Amino acid sequence: MQTNSESIQPQIIQQFTKYLENNALRLTTERRDILEQVFAYDDHFRADDLLMRMRQNGYTASRATIYRTLPLLVKSGLLTEVIDAQKQSHYEHIHSRQEHAHLICLRCSSIIEFENPEIDALQEAVCKRLQFKPVKYRNEILGYCAECQKDGI
Ligand SMILES: [Zn+2]
Ligand SMILES: [Zn+2]
Questions:
Q1: Model confidence, pTM
Q2: C-alpha of residue 104 to centroid of ligand 1, in Å
Q3: Which tens digit of pLDDT belongs to each residue from 52-62?
């Protein structure tokens, strides 16, 4: 069986290492393992999902290390955090999908993704007009999903 989980792009490791160095931290084996496992996802995940996945794959990174490393990955720009209605953090790495927006259900916490080139173009136009240099677009709409509306919401 072939696995690609060990082969993440060098520039991703570089970006994280640089962020860590700027904050007087080192790329420890545990942090590197976490980085690799994070980039093996192609969908949203929670910290506990990652913990379980790492346990299953035989990694020993502690729960505390995972919980401390995810915010570092967010700050380094490699990970996006989506907070649902229950204040739970979900993560996705920057290469998982193209730029997309999230619909977050306030009742069941499901996260629905959508892409809309017209919205992208509008945002770019706004940034240009206000001379703002965009780094990351974050679009979220809070509300109720179709399933929850069936229950009379
Ligand atoms: Zn729902
Ligand atoms: Zn997403």
A1: 0.77
A2: 8
A3: 999 999 999 89
